[in-house]
Specification:
Layout: H1 6-32, H2 35-61, E1 74-79, H3 85-98, E2 103-107, H4 108-114, H5 122-141, E3 145-149, H6 155-164, E4 168-173, H7 177-183, H8 188-193, E5 215-217, H9 224-262
Parallel strand pairs: 1-3, 1-4, 2-3, 4-5
Helix pairs in contact: 1-2, 3-9, 5-6
Amino acid sequence: MFYESTARSLLKSASWRILGTIITVGIVWILTRRLAVAAGIGGLEAGAKTLLFYLHERGWDAVRFGKKQVQPAVIWFTGLSGSGKSTIATHLQAQLQKRGWKCEVLDGDVIRSIFPSTGFSRAERDSHVRRVGHLASRLESHGIFVIASLISPYEESRSFVRGLCKNFIEVYISTPLSECERRDAKGLYARARRGELPRFTGIDDPYEAPVAPELTIDTTAMTVAAAAAQILDFLDSSQSKRNAQKQLSVSGKGAVGIAKKAA
């Protein structure tokens, strides 16, 4: 993957300006056959257009029309193993990156593979979720969208993470246990049923479904693309509401200022 560095952008702009000036000088020389005149007009044109471009950009910077602030969010997927969390998270990440938004995926299984000593008792699960939640909140504070995909079975743990984040979107992947077992690509449920995997969520360890999630998605009869689209629609709607509220707040402050001056 490639991206445009600031140095490359500046070099491209400078080369374009130089090329334009050379063309101007060439045209004037062809018409007048006087190199000094051509060089003088070329230099004047380059200076004038550089100044005008600067003023033009500064002017547009002051105009709010068309500007839409993007508020980063922590999109927290919770649900049973095999419900579709990771698959949707990967697809959603690609869609956000297409928009040019900085995005990171925090997958529970991947993080556990890095820290294999992380256990599955209630206390250990709670600590695991809280640590990932803290990391997610720090990334969010630096303007990065975070897609966290963890079973996170306990309401208390998820509520703790919600309290850490400024813009927390809980997405409950509510795919039923029977469907998750039917998929069972890794054979985890079968092993749990045989008692080989103790404290397995949904079998011999409880899953506390979210009380009031922002979104509930059942992937039994829904494609990954459709699920991601539903989340994107919610994001767009929430972004629009935030921008509208911010504009109202700015307008309100302006009105208060005018009233104070009038008083």
